[in-house]
Amino acid sequence: MSMKEEEMIEKLRKEVEIPDKVRQKANEAFASIKKDAGAGAAEERAAERRTGGRMPGKKLWILAAAAILAFGTVTAGAAAYMKWSKSLSDGMAVEEEQKRELEDAHMAAPIDQSVTDQGVTVTMVQTIVDQHFLRISLKVEGYEPPQGEQPDFGRTLITIDGKNIDDAENEEDYVNLSSYFFDNIVQSPEDGKAVNLDGTPFTEDQEISYVLEDGSMEYNIVLFNAESENYFMEKPIHLELTGLGGLYLEGYRPNIEGTWSFDWNLERSDMVRACSPDIALGDTGAVVEKIEISPISAQVTYRFPRTKTKEKGYNDSGEEIDVELTEEPPELTGVKMKDGTTYSYLYGGPGSCGFSSDEGEEYIHTFGLNRILDTAQIESFLFLKSIPEDEEPLTEENFYIVPANEKTAGRNY
Q: Which residues form the DUF4179 domain (predicted)?
């Protein structure tokens, strides 16, 4: 095989990014190509003498076509990494390499189940799961909401391991559910303001659209369990959506009476970075004992003395009264990445916070993120110290900065 052929194949190798698990098949394909070329080496050398050392055009085309065919097969296998919903891929600003890592770790999984009823097809596209959160993304085709209507399903029924999440009998089984049709609006992690998916500022008078360019809509469900780690993993899950209509001031108004049901199991994933900084946040009395952060959520464990304060408030009759409040530690609101990028507003809800017992000083804050993070690239965590006046953007002066160093083995990766 000539040097030019080797260079051409190497160029094809570099231009097409493939995962490790299919790279061996690609190498075997190239080996086969080389073997076939080597079988006619004598004829090729004679042809080279006749053509001044250049590969005959037909042979070069056949070799190139074979190489492209081999890589075409590999690319088709790699394409599974790209089938993300728009609301999760663009809405949570996930990069292509992150998609591969999340799927390889079984944190993100394609489901690809479709159900059609009343002319409306609902497809479960994918899920993303970690130790406390499960995000489900569905595609809805065959329905376009009336002008000005906020679409919604009439009823969402979910059972996990045979248990209806609405019938939880103890805190360990309590699941918070939030759901919404994606409206092409996201929260900027830099300043917390609402922006359109294309990056333009959101304005109060703009028309909100739930329909994507291909005419479909995307419905997202977020499940949250604060008490039990890995609650959603390796369990049978059943989802049933009933009715499709719109939300109005008087409540839900049905337009279509259909039912769309799905059943699946999630694999186990432990893509969590754990840090134990044991750092005090200024003179607040709060000590950050542990931070667990996954690409989609964070949990902070503090040591924090219980302190009561009184503020003026009003009762149901409008009378001014003293309200007793329990002070809270400074919240983790952002991170600084190793490349210098700062995300000041990461809260994407839902979440929970509070003391873990009636008497102790352990305080836990758990919440979902509004973007997908490469947690290995986090340099430091940003805890809110103060809010600047006149809606000025937050700077490092407004944060307690906690380095992202690991003092314990934990579950770092």
A: 59-141
- Which residues have a Cβ under 8 Å from the Cβ of 236 and sit 6 or more positions away? 160, 161, 162, 263, 264, 265
For residue 158, tell me if it sits in a domain: yes
Q: Which residues pair with 273 in a beta bridge?
A: 293
Neighbours of 72 (CB within 10 A): 11
Together in a domain, 220 and 318 = no
* Spatial distance between the Cα atoms of 78 and 294, rounded to a whole number of angstroms: 24
pLDDT of residue 407: 56
Residue 37 belongs to some domain of the structure = yes
DSSP 267: P
Which of 17, 50, 81 delimits the end of a domain? 81
C-alpha–C-alpha distance, residues 406 and 408, integer Å: 6
Instruction: Quick: pLDDT tens for 254-265.
Output: 999 999 999 999
Q: What is the CA radius of gyration of the chain?
A: 27
Q: What is the pLDDT of residues 7-27, one digit of tens each?
A: 444 444 444 444 443 344 444
Signed CA dihedral, 88, 222, 105, 291: sign only:
positive
Instruction: Please tell me the total count of domains within the chain.
Output: 3
258 and 289 belong to one structural domain: no
Among residues 157, 277, 266, the alpha carbon closest in space to that of 221 is found at 157
Q: Which of 128, 100, 119, 113 is nearest to 348 (CA)?
A: 128
Give the span between the Cα atoms of 56 and 301, in whole angstroms. Answer: 69
Do residues 338 and 377 lie in contact, with contact meaning Cβ atoms separated by under 8 Å?
Answer: yes
- Cα–chain center distance at 199: 19
Q: Which domain holds residue 399?
A: 273-403
Buried b (16+ CB within 10 A) or exposed e, 35-63: eebeeeeeebeeeeeeeeeebeeeeeeeb
Q: Give the Cα separation of 38 and 5 in Å (integer).
A: 12
Distance CA 140, CA 66 (A): 40
Residue at 91 is within a domain: no
**Contact, 370 vs 345, CB < 8 A?**
yes
Interatomic CA distance for residues 348 and 368, integer angstroms = 5
CATH number at residue 255: 2.60.40.1630
Contact 382, 329 (CB under 8 A): no
Q: What is the reported pTM? A: 0.76
Contact 136, 221 (CB under 8 A): yes
